[in-house]
Design a protein that fits this description.
The chain has 241 residues and is mainly α. The chain has helices spanning 7-21, 28-33, 38-51, 57-68, 73-82, 88-105, 111-120, 124-131, 138-165, 188-202, 219-240.
């Protein structure tokens, strides 16, 4: 029984009912009118007088939705053509709801048109991916869009985790830190090379800085050698004793 609430939902049920029981086109209005309450029936009687024998079930459904609906059929069609995705689940539910309303006015819409309309309303990333795939129905397109959305979410999460871990291994230079590549930062290899060149010119030993002459031995090296000889003598005495 239709009591003036949710007319679009009720007309969709009437349509399915007529299809299931194969009710002839000319009898659909009479069958549906039997399920109107007093208030709606009063409207229906006025509608019959205005339309006469020219009234079709589509006109009946449009008139009913216009009289008892919160928005006109034209508004629903416009909303359907401009529908855009915000959340995929919500978008699919809204699309299917508006599609059923558009079907009342345009019952011969092709599946390909509906699939194209569904893809057109997706966000840019999903829309580009979906255009490269073959879809035969809105349901199939919605399932593939959901899989693509999950893939994008996984990639995004992986990238986010990698970005968060990176500072543990690399810290960018701050303003108060020394840049070793700067011209003002001393190069230890170049400094050592310069010192050795000066010692060579002055005739000094590279190791000890003492005056260098043929047969020169560094004092540090001699001490090491003497220490080694003393250790060898002690080991020899220990073996003899």
């Amino acid at each position: 029984m239709f009591e003036g609430m949710k007319p679009k939902w009720w007309t969709r049920r009437c349509k399915r009912f007529s299809q299931f029981y194969r009710i002839p086109e000319e009898q659909k209005i009479n069958v549906d009118a039997a399920y109107l309450n007093d208030t709606v029936d009063s409207w229906y009687q006025g509608w019959i007088q205005d339309e006469g024998n020219q009234g079709s079930w589509v006109k009946f459904a449009k008139g009913l939705c216009k009289r008892f609906g919160e928005r006109s059929m034209a508004d629903a069609i416009e909303e359907f053509s401009k529908l855009k995705q915000e959340g995929l689940v919500e978008y699919q539910a809204k699309f299917e709801d508006l599609r059923s309303i558009v079907y009342i006015v345009q019952p011969r819409l092709t599946k390909q048109y509906l699939v194209s309309s569904f893809i057109r309303g997706l966000n840019e990333e999903l829309r580009l991916m979906m255009k490269m795939m073959m879809q035969t129905s809105v349901r199939q397109a919605a399932e593939k869009a959901r899989l693509q959305e999950l893939t994008l979410e996984a990639i995004y999460n992986k990238y986010t985790i990698a970005t968060e871990i990176q500072p543990l291994f690399y810290q960018p230079l701050e303003g108060d830190q020394v840049n070793v590549h700067s011209k003002d930062f001393p190069n230890p290899i170049a400094a050592k090379s310069s010192t050795m060149e000066q010692q060579r010119k002055l005739g000094l030993c590279y190791r000890s800085g003492a005056k260098f002459s043929p047969g020169h031995r560094c004092q540090k090296q001699l001490l090491n050698m003497e220490g080694t000889e003393e250790e060898n003598e002690e080991e020899e005495l220990a073996r003899i004793g």
